[in-house]
Structure formats: C-alpha cells, structure tokens
C-alpha cells in the first residue's frame, strides 16, 4: 500500500514533465488570422459603440467575452461569476452660479465649472490669491511667499515663453491638470484658471466619470473663467498681469473681493466590470499566471464611434485566442501546471480603473501570481517604422523590472519559436511617454507581480481617433504577436519554479 501511494504520488510530477516537454507549436497554430478577425469584427464593431466604460456598449462587449469564456469551459474567475463589477460615478449639472462683488456672471459665457472635482454647495470668499501661472517646478515656484490654504486661487492660462521643462504629460507643471494638482497640494479651496475661447459652447450636461467618490480630503473646486471675469476679480491690474505673464514670472498678490461660487449637481451611480475566467492547472494549482488586456475604449462622441480596433480590441481578441489555445492543449492532455487567469478589464482609458480595482480586491492570491502578461495594442505598426525590414517587431516593456528572470526567459522563447525583434525603447526610465506606467500591467507591478507588456507603439496615426478601425489591422502581425505571448505564457505556466521577485518595484515620479 505504501509503495502504491509512492508511485501515485509521483504521477503528477511525471505528468508535469511530460507536459513541459510537449511541443506547443501545433497548439499555437490554432491562433489564426481568421479567428482573430472574426472576434475583432464584433468587438470593434458598430454595435459595441466604442465600448466606453460604464455604458451599454461596454456591457455588450463584456457579455460577448463572458460567453466566449463560458463556451471554452473556463471556470469563473471571481468566485462564482465571470465578471467583477466596480462602481463608477458621474455628475449631472443641475445649476451653477458665480458672482463677484454681487455682480452675477453667466455659465458658459463667462465661466465653466469642472464637475468631477467641484463639490455641490456654496463657497464664499472675501479675497482671491493671484498665483501667476500656478507652476511649481525645480527652479520655478509661483506660490513662493503666498499662503493659499483654504483660499480661492486665480491662475493664468498656459506658460510664459521664458519657462522650459523636460516634464511632459497631463501632470506636467504647465499643463491644466498639473496646475490644478499643484494648487491642491498647496491647500487651495477653489481654483479659477483663466482660459481662452469664451464664450464657450454649453457645458456638457454630464461630467467626466470617476471612481473616487469618497476621499479623506475634499478636492478643491475647479473653474475655468474668461479674461473679463478675471479682470473683475483683480481690477485694473489685470492688463499688466496678462501681458507680463506672456513672457515671464508674475508676482503673486492677494486681492480683496467678494467671490460667490454655488453649484448643484446630481451624482449618478454607475458600474463597470472586468471579465475573467480561468483554466485550472495540474500539479501547481496554488499558483497563477495572469494574462490581461483592456476591452474598453472611448465610446461615442455624438454619432461618431471611436472603434478602438487596435486600442485595445487587438489585445482583447489576443486574450480570447490564447485562452482557446490553452483549452485545446488541456483537452489534448497537455494542460498547464499552473492556473491561468484570463482577464479583460475595463476603465483603462479612464485611468487603469479595472486593473486597479482587481489589484485592490483580487480574486486570487497576488503573492502566488508568477507573472502578468499584458497586451495593449498589438495589431498595427508604429508610424516611425518606414521600411519592411523593421516591421517584424513588438515593443516589450517591463521585462527588465521586478525579476532578473523575465528578460532571459522572454528572449529565449522568442528566439526559439517566433524570432521577432523585441524593441526595448520604452523600458528607458527617461521615456518621455512613460509607457511603463500607462497600461494595466502597472497595477500588478505595484503589488510586486513581475510583468511583461506587449505593445505596437502606435501613438500617432489613428490613436484615439474614430479611424482606429478593423480594416487597418495587420492580422498576420497580430497573429504572430499573440502567438509570442502564448509561447511565453506556456513556459511560465509550466516551469518548475514561480518567477523570482528580486528587483525593486519601480515608482512613477509625479510631476
């Protein structure tokens, strides 16, 4: 009896060895251009309406992905559900009033409130602090000598011609949002940012979506205002401030004036979801490999659909096909040793919401996740690549971080099966686009999970435009890249040891 038990005890290990030696090429061949195109024609079709987070189009796409996971026989990845819902909020403007020294101004004609951060209720100030352009940088601080905590702050539009910075992106010091964040850090209660093009079109009835309804501190209210309204706040000084600010730094000053801000809005409670299913492993069922892509996009603007065929319909259908390949492998007795969680997330375009929610409410133990392979845009060619000899490529991001085992593994698998050019330009810590921090793998990396991000680099041409359509997709290249991810996943799912975590977690520098 003991000898029999010993033999049976060896059986899973023997099976695992057999699986590891199995040739995955026949299985990878099941990832076809025809299947990728069939799925993508639906996912990036007009019926999905651009798949914007928390809309009917997104929910239709989620249902399609769930049905595919069910049809493959994947197990539900969130307890007994294939979807993981998370809350989304959106504001509807009811009314807004603004007055300076009892003189009323008109919404859209003179000012516009930014609904997402402007709380309902009234704010009444007896003075306004002018803080130049509101720039805070290593050699430039428009708040020097000013106390703005709990006060209303007035800021100039843009940046002066004498200001230069290497920082880019929406958080950069001279950007609209960067200025607002700096004012918040200084403790401002309200921010009035002078803007161009007043009078403007009517404020959208609905504000931007957000997930952080509850916060330890309430954010500062935010308004864009006309130059005429700014003049009413600072009087005759305005012309000098405006002209002087075009070329250089303008000194801050406190102005005594009565400012009334009143706003009423309705908070709409919506929801979105991640779609997740898993394939059970053989002898390493306590460990996981995660394969992700985001299935949301930008939705509709009026009647114009932003299809998102490459971004990230291509990654989404890649996950669908990779899942199907692993299911076929298991049916042939070659299933993975580790569990594989296939997950498509939403809210990526809004700020990596879905993957962040999963990372904070994981359905699997994150310390048992060997890696996350994230696919975001693998169906097009970077517009910088002009000649045919440069087109057999994929950008690989993050393989040099968190684990010293990732890059050698990735390169050996690529050389063995696919032989693409692995371009590492976005691994550069000085990458101005900060690509490493801009897709869903980052929320796994923050938890210490080793990650590889596959990406085509198409940040020009049709990126975030209605013209990102299925007819632009290079399906032979999409297939090849999806197969590369499959082969890499095959190795990760079947290797003896979980990938080591022996490098520090990178952090993003907040501008």
Structural overview:
The chain has helices spanning 2-21, 25-28, 33-43, 56-72, 176-185, 227-234, 238-244, 309-331, 348-351, 353-360, 406-418, 441-445, 475-494, and strands at residues 75-76, 83-100, 103-105, 111-113, 121-130, 136-137, 140-141, 152-155, 190-194, 206-210, 221-225, 253-279, 284-294, 299-301, 304-306, 338-345, 369-375, 393-397, 421-423, 451-455. The chain is α/β, with parallel strands linked by helices. The protein folds into 2 domains: 20-89 and 271-494, Zn peptidases (Aminopeptidase), CATH 3.40.630; 91-268, Glucose Oxidase, domain 1. The protein contains 13 helices and 20 strands. The termini are far apart. 46% of the residues are buried. Helices cover 29% and strands 26% of the residues.
SSE blueprint:
Blueprint: H1 2-21, H2 25-28, H3 33-43, H4 56-72, E1 75-76, E2 83-100, E3 103-105, E4 111-113, E5 121-130, E6 136-137, E7 140-141, E8 152-155, H5 176-185, E9 190-194, E10 206-210, E11 221-225, H6 227-234, H7 238-244, E12 253-279, E13 284-294, E14 299-301, E15 304-306, H8 309-331, E16 338-345, H9 348-351, H10 353-360, E17 369-375, E18 393-397, H11 406-418, E19 421-423, H12 441-445, E20 451-455, H13 475-494
Parallel strand pairs: 5-8, 8-9, 9-11, 13-16, 13-17, 17-20, 18-19
Antiparallel strand pairs: 1-12, 2-3, 2-10, 2-12, 4-11, 5-12, 6-7, 12-16, 14-15, 18-20
Helix pairs in contact: 3-8, 3-13, 4-8, 8-13, 11-13
């Amino acid at each position: 009896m003991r000898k029999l038990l010993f033999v049976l005890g060896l059986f899973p290990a023997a099976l695992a060895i057999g699986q590891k030696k199995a040739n995955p090429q026949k299985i990878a061949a099941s990832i076809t251009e025809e299947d990728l195109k069939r799925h993508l024609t639906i996912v990036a079709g007009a019926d999905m309406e651009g798949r914007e987070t928390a809309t009917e189009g997104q929910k239709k796409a989620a249902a399609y992905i769930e049905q595919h996971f069910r049809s493959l026989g994947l197990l539900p990845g969130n307890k007994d559900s294939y979807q993981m819902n998370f809350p989304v909020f959106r504001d509807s403007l009811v009314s807004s009033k603004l007055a300076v020294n009892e003189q009323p101004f008109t919404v859209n004609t003179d000012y516009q409130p930014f609904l997402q951060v402007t709380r309902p209720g009234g704010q009444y100030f007896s003075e306004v602090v002018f803080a130049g352009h509101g720039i805070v940088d290593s050699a430039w601080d428009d708040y020097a000598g000013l106390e703005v905590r709990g006060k209303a702050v007035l800021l100039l539009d843009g940046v002066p011609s004498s200001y230069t910075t290497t920082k880019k992106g929406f958080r950069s010091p001279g950007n609209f949002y960067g200025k607002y964040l700096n004012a918040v850090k200084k403790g401002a209660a309200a921010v009035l940012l002078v803007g161009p093009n007043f009078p403007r079109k009517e404020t959208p009835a609905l504000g931007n979506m957000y997930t952080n309804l509850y916060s330890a501190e309430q954010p500062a209210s935010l308004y864009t205002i006309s130059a005429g309204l700014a003049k009413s706040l600072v009087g005759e000084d305005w012309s000098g401030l405006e002209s002087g600010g075009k070329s250089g730094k303008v000194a801050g000053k406190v102005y005594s004036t009565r400012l009334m801000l009143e706003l009423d809005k309705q908070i709409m409670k919506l929801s979105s979801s991640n779609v997740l299913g898993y394939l059970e492993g053989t002898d390493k069922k306590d460990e996981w490999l995660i394969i992700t892509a985001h299935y949301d996009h930008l939705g509709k603007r009026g009647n114009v659909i932003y299809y998102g065929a490459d971004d990230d319909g291509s990654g989404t259908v890649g996950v669908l096909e990779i899942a199907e390949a692993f299911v076929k492998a298991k049916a042939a007795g070659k299933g993975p040793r580790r569990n594989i969680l296939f997950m498509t997330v939403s809210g990526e375009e809004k700020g990596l919401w879905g993957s962040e929610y999963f990372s904070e409410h994981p359905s699997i133990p994150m310390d048992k996740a060997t890696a996350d392979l994230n696919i975001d845009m693998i169906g097009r060619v970077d517009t910088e690549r002009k000649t045919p000899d440069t087109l057999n490529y994929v950008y690989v991001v993050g393989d040099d971080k968190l684990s010293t085992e990732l890059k050698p593994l990735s390169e050996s698998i690529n050389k063995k099966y696919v032989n693409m050019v692995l371009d590492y330009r976005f691994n550069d810590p000085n990458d101005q686009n900060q690509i490493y921090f801009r897709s869903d793998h980052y929320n796994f990396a923050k938890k210490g999970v080793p990650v590889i991000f596959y990406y085509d680099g198409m940040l020009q041409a049709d990126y975030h435009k209605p013209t990102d359509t299925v007819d632009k997709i290079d399906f032979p290249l999409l297939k090849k890249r999806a197969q590369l991810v499959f082969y890499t996943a095959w190795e990760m799912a079947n290797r003896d040891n979980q990938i080591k975590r022996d490098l520090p977690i990178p952090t993003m520098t907040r501008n």
